[in-house]
Amino acid sequence: MQLRQISVFLENNAGRLGDVTRVLAQAGINLRAISIADTADFGILRLIVNNNEAAIKALNDAGFTTRETPVAALEIEDAPGSLAQVMELFQNSKVNIEYLYASLSTKPGKAVVIFKLEDHEKGLQIVRANGLSTIETF
């Protein structure tokens, strides 16, 4: 199993982000990581949650458009240079990162970085070949 991100497409209107979080709260969904990218007209909300199936159902039932995407989540040391080492690994291996965002880990001294990689499988192979591992939940 791998970590899957939910993307929610939102009109760039006041209150839409609040609507999403309210729908998720009412469905008992716990947010583990969240990121939003916006333009003048719309936004893409990216979520890692504790229950994708229930979150997607709740959001779709509320009229939101969603998409599920595989992502690579790496748990790294919460220390200067930890992310730079991972970035150098991807750079040297010519793995393109489309975007990333981070969250706190439930483990002290750790952080979780979620990567959307252009070539997901190649990125996972590089991670494993270099002694790193992905996490499926946090």
Describe this structure in words.
By secondary structure, this protein is an alpha+beta fold. The protein folds into 2 domains: 67 residues, VC0802-like (2-Layer Sandwich); 58 residues, ACT domain (Alpha-Beta Plaits), CATH 3.30.70. 30% of the residues lie in helices and 38% in strands. It contains 4 helices and 7 strands. The strands form 2 sheets. Strands 2-3-1-4 form a 4-stranded antiparallel β-sheet, covered by helices on one side. Strands 5-7-6 form a 3-stranded antiparallel β-sheet.
Strand content: 35-45%
Please tell me the total number of domains.
2
Secondary structure tally, helices: 4
* Structural class computed from helices and strand pairing: alpha+beta
Question: What keywords describe this structure?
Answer:
138 residues, alpha+beta, VC0802-like, Alpha-Beta Plaits, 2 domains, 4-stranded antiparallel beta sheet, 3-stranded antiparallel beta sheet, 4 helices, 7 strands, globular
Summary of the model, kept short:
The protein is an alpha+beta fold and 138 residues long.
Write the layout of secondary structure elements.
Blueprint: E1 4-11, H1 16-26, E2 31-38, E3 42-49, H2 52-61, E4 65-70, E5 72-77, H3 82-92, E6 97-104, E7 110-117, H4 120-129
Antiparallel strand pairs: 1-3, 1-4, 2-3, 5-7, 6-7
